[in-house]
Amino acid sequence: MCSGGVLQRFNAGLALSLALLVPGTAVARLAPVPDKPYRHMLIEERSDDRGMQRFVSERRLVFHPLPTGFALDLTILDASAPANGSGAMFAAALAGLKGRTVRFLLDQEGRILGIDDAAAVWAALCAAVDRAAAASPPASAARQRAADAMAAAFRTLPAHRRQDMLSSLVNATLAGALAARLPVEDSAISISARSPTGMPVALPGRETVRIIDDRTILITTTAQGDVTAPPPGATGPSRISVTISKRVDRAAGLILESREQRETTLGAGPTARRNTSLTVSRLDPPVF
User: Could you give the strand order of the β-sheet that contains 51-66, starting from the edge strand earlier in sequence?
Assistant: First the structure.
């Protein structure tokens, strides 16, 4: 006799196979292995003229079926970051949630509808940031003011921004509409990015969607463009380039692996500076 999880995965795989055979149809439905732990690793590396910073976080994800979707329980198992700068505040924020289970309520397509006990979760995160700001070494008055300002910003963030920030802990694993993508050889797209001054910019690019097997697709995106308003100290326009790849389990509605590389060249000529970042997300399914 097949278990409920095995039968669910078979039905999801069969639906995907039919969708790929019938033009104009697609599947966008969340169907993870229920009540079993997934392991999620997130690694980010940032490099600029001051050196390289590395952030690592390990999480456990468990999907519990509900009549209207799923409850996704996230537990941060470990987190590490550089000892100084924004990395320290990032580590402090995650440390406030380490070992604590945060429950996200999802609909059938994997959209986040809400967060259980969100006020208490946010209070724990803010308390950790406050402690980090108070304990930061007084290297400079400017750095201390920046740490205090960041802690204050966390406490006064509007409710919808709080949910967005907490949701970012699991967004890298939820395929949502990506699970409905059909194969495309090469198409023109535009993606949003942020300029070195923090302003939103639209970058033109190309995208390819390829079938890997009967339940998995690979989405590859490349985009680049110039930013005409350079940041202070830069001469000439800045250039941003982005390369993103996502391996999506369409049957489960999950992103199994993603790699996002961004490069920003600030200015031109011998005074040009380059900032790069690489973010890698990997979701390991439960082992039976």
Answer: 112-115, 101-107, 69-80, 51-66, 37-48, 273-284, 254-266, 238-249, 216-227, 200-211, 184-194
Q: Is 223 within 8 Å of 190 (Cβ atoms)?
A: yes
Tens digit of pLDDT for each residue in 245-273? 999 999 999 999 999 999 988 877 777 78
Which tokens hold the place of 282?
């990997």
- Distance, in Å, from the CA atom of 135 to the CA atom of 181, rounded to the nearest integer, reads 47
DSSP H or E stretch at residue 239: strand 238-249
**Number of residues assigned to the chain:** 288
The string of pLDDT tens digits covering residues 201-246 is: 889 999 999 999 999 999 999 999 887 655 555 556 788 999 999 9
DSSP assignment string, 73-103 = EEEEEEEE--SSTHHHHHHHHHHTTBT-EEE
State how far the Cα of 77 lies from the Cα of 164, in Å rounded to an integer.
21
Q: What is the pLDDT of residues 23-70, one digit of tens each?
A: 444 556 899 999 999 999 999 999 887 788 888 999 999 999 999 999
Taking the alpha carbons at both ends of the chain, their separation in whole angstroms is 16
Residue 268 tokens, joined: 């031109």
Q: How many CB atoms are closer than 10 A to CB 82? A: 16
How confident is the model at residue 86, as a pLDDT? Answer: 58
Give, for 129, the enclosing helix (H) or strand (E): helix 118-135
Which residues are CB-neighbours of 205 under 8 A, at least 6 positions away? 188, 189, 190, 191, 221, 222, 223, 224, 242
Helix 159-167 vs helix 118-135: crossing angle, to nearest 10? 80
CB 200 within 8 A of CB 229: no
Task: Indicate whether this model's pTM tops 0.70.
Answer: yes
